[in-house]
Amino acid sequence: MLAYIIRRTLYAIPVLIGVNLITFMLFFVVNTPDDIARMQLGAKRVTPAAIQSWKAEHGYDRPYLYDDDEHGLTQFTDTLFFQKSVKVLALDFGRSDAGRSISADILERMGPSLALAVPTLIVGMLVNITFGLLLVFCRATAIDWGGVVLCVVLMSISPLFYIIAGQFVFGKLMNLVPISGFSGGWDMARFLILPVAIGIVAGIGSGTRWYRTIFVEEYGKEYVRTARAKGLSDLRILFVHVLKNGMIPILTGVVVLLPLLFMGSLIMESFFGIPGLGSYTIEAIQNQDFAIVRAMVFLGSVLYIVGLLLTDISYTLFDPRIRL
Questions:
Q1: What tens digit of pLDDT does each residue of 261-293 get?
Q2: Which terminus, N or C, of the chain has the lesser number of Cβ atoms within 10 Å?
């Protein structure tokens, strides 16, 4: 197992390097250092001298990948790619174009993002799995067909509708929760209960259909017929045997949801004014702050790869064949 973990970790290194390189190339294809300088200076007419001064101050006056004027390794190290991107591989995020420490900002904003994302993911999974099992238990009945139709209807509604409707009904009309904002301590729950609930409701349609498909497939296998022939009840078969054997695709689906959950938090945090990593990324894109965009893309790649590794390891807990 240790050799497997080490091998998978080593496989991740070239992937992260490739993501870093592609992010660098895409960003500077869209925006040159001169464009970034003009946006950061915030003036309609900026003199070339001011642009050059800003670029020199923030390290954007170097060549992209190779410096002909230097010698030896300095030809590769005194470049934009090395100074702005390679250091990220050592988790040295440096400073944003506004001069703030990116690592400090990430640590500061990580709490609100986790407070929003973790309950949305965990409670959402429990709700979707429960509804999926219920539809399978009542399969080929009016409850099953009605549940499937309801799931399709929920899937067809944009998440933006849930956000706007939730803010209008529960925030403005009923005045139960704040429409936007954030606070620390126990008062945090008052600001998070609505976005968490909206995130759960918005995912019920697709999540329940996904888990129902998994459980229906498992319910038609030979071991279920054998268990039923031995006299086991449908509830025991469903909640013990079918649920356990359906964990492998469930675990795979959780990893797939991680980047989608992160991208969803971009919208949720922006609409509800939550100072998390999602709104941090949106602000960086709007301000064309390459340092922050680069750091957030790299972190997303690391989390996705770590999630895949943890998923492969967790497979061994539910499938003895993998251990053998």
A1: 665 577 888 888 888 888 888 888 887 777 888
A2: C
The count of domains in the chain is 2
| 202 within domain boundaries | yes
- Cα(187)–Cα(174) distance, rounded to whole angstroms? 19
pLDDT-based confidence at residue 198 (cuts at 50, 70, 90): very high
CA angle 214, 311, 210 (to 5 degrees): 20
3-class secondary structure, 101? strand
User: Cα torsion at 287, 293, 296, 299 (round to 10°)?
Assistant: -170
| Closest to 210 (Cα-Cα) out of 160, 240, 251, 241 | 251
User: What is the C-alpha to C-alpha distance for residues 141 and 135, in angstroms, rounded to an integer?
Assistant: 9
Of the residues 58, 90, 122, which one is the last residue of a structural domain? 90
Please state, in angstroms and as integers, the Cα–Cα distance from residue 240 to each residue in 124, 215, 246, 247, 251, following that order. Answer: 20, 12, 10, 11, 17
Could you give the angle at which helices 247-272 and 159-166 cross, rounded to 10 degrees?
50
Q: How many angstroms separate the CA atoms of 101 and 89, rounded?
A: 17
Buried b (16+ CB within 10 A) or exposed e, 285-319: eebbbbbbbbbbbbbbbbebbebbbebbeebeeee
